[in-house]
Design a protein that fits this description.
The protein has 123 residues and is mainly β. It has a domain at 3-87. The chain contains 1 helix and 6 strands; from the N terminus they run ββββββα. It has one helix at residues 96-107; strands spanning 11-14, 19-23, 35-37, 42-44, 62-68, 82-87. Strands 4-3-2-1-5-6 form a 6-stranded antiparallel sheet, with no helix packed on it. The longest helix has 12 residues, at 96-107. The relative contact order is 0.15.
Length: 123
């Protein structure tokens, strides 16, 4: 999902777990002045990169996008009344040693990774 896919009335979940509503100035793509709000404050969508990550604060990365099951549910968020339409696919960053340990636990076999930590290809 991209920032341009967001629409007014959608709700998004930050990496911190907080859920906020999307409010756009128009029906078109996100532009200056568009915000995310929880009713107590707001977060500017200008600070978000197209992949829905925040340009400054990791905890404000958007990790889920939710839509209301019924129009009148848009106003007040209740988990039961919303469907998740997108979830950020998280990547696992591992060192070679961590990867070896995981493979060993899963298969019972020790492995050797050739080519070094930054190799493009493994032989």
């Amino acid at each position: 999902m991209k920032k341009s896919d967001l629409r007014t009335g959608m709700w998004v979940r930050f990496r911190t777990g907080e859920v906020v509503m999307v409010l756009l100035n128009s029906k078109d793509v996100c532009r200056e002045g568009d915000i995310l709000t929880n009713g107590k404050g707001y977060f500017s969508l200008e600070k978000y990169i197209d992949d829905l990550t925040h340009s400054e604060v990791i905890g404000l990365d958007i990790v889920e996008v939710l839509i209301a099951q019924r129009t009148w549910d848009i106003i007040a968020f209740s988990e039961d009344n919303f469907d998740c339409i997108w979830v950020r696919e998280e990547k696992m960053n591992l060192t070679q040693e961590e990867a070896k340990e995981i493979i060993y636990k899963a298969t019972g076999k020790k492995i050797e990774i050739k080519g070094g930590e930054n190799a493009l290809y493994r032989v």
